[in-house]
Predict the 3D structure of the following.
Amino acid sequence: MNYILKNHDYTDDIVVTIMMFYPNEKYAQITEPEGRTVLSAIENGGAFAAFYDGGECLARAQVNIDPENEKNVRFGLRTAVFKCLMQVHPIKAPWGTLTGVRPAKLVQMMYRDGLSDEEVYASLKNDYFVTDEKIRLAMKVAKSEQRIVENGIGKIGLYIGIPFCPTRCLYCSFTSYPLDKYANKVDLYLDALEREIKFTAELIKDKELESIYIGGGTPTSLNETQLERLLTLVSDSFKTPVEYTVEAGRPDTIDIDKLRIIKDHNVGRISINPQTLNDETLVAIGRRHTVEDFYKAFKLARQAGHDHINTDIILGLPGEDETHVTKTMDGLERLSPESITVHTLAVKRASRLKETLEQYELTDFDRMEKMLAVTSKRTAEMGLQPYYMYRQKNMVGNFENVGYCKPNCECIYNVQIMEEQQSIIALGAGGSTKTVEKAPDGDKIERIFNVKSVDDYINRIDEMIMRKKTGLENF
Ligand code: SF4
């Protein structure tokens, strides 16, 4: 798929909108229509879009814009492309022209601007073409998030990444290294991380720490000695925050001793993620554990005293339909976790799935919609409510990921990372620190990145610390 930009260079806005209609293609910028081409232009004070095929113009659309307002210009350009492509290639677009990661944040902003429920509803429907069902979901999530966001203003969050896993899952695009090849790097990694943790503890000693989230990778890939070392270091360096989470994502990394170590360090929330409760799918996605392993791990976690357990699942895994999802929800219902995070499969650039896409038949829109209907209904029956959500590029069907929880079991960290009203300091390989400075004319968000590779992180830890020192100078 080709595209032409005229009188602007908002490439991302245009490509992301085209991707909604023509996913998983290569997108090339050209200067004259050639083959299938989308033209996006600012012309005569408006946003204009046209679609060409074989040299013939098949559709056009125009949207009024305020040329002095960049946000409005970008919004207009996206809307023009959306309206134009809807004429030649109509799709079901539950989120309309909303291409961003954080639909609930937009709703929060509308509420902060003083819009009423009716006005928020009307704007999402008429300006962004969002469906009624998704409007209700976004408003529900935004309202649930409000209290957490307000409580967290001025406080900070801390993320610590442990980038090791037993094997690499088919769909994974995280910084994650398989332990069979990287086991000998783990202690060196912890040495470097220790330095970054100690430096950061000193840097933020006067701040109020609201949450700590140890994620990855899979932190429980560490052996008991390494896990004890890490958690002792964290306890010695930071005051226990309101919320403390450790990802115990892969059931094949968990045993009773590790679960007790985690509990003994005052960790209040863990996540054990089956992704599906169908054994043949677990094999297909490269997770070296069974459904039974997940049940055992969950039971052990309860035995060790963990009373706040999240479980992640993914809809749209290869070969699955609503009957598989029903089976997964049956199993989860029996366990009654405090929260369930329902993801829809995304084909991420750095994943094995993307590399081997031709081997899989991905779920279509209608089937994904049916699977989402199952999880929405079953979570409600279990007394769980949606409390946070986000979207990603290349999600199958253009849907969303939603966290559901029992009353008062929201994950503060998840809400804060999505709403971007709080600074979150990230440590470890691939860590992306985000500082938020509140200002009347709009929040100022700055990012500080750590290198992604484990080897680079170990070898360049001085540089990572220096980046934090410089980036957080006036923090
Ligand atoms: S467990 Fe998570 S981080 Fe590890 S490979 Fe699978 S998706 Fe990636």
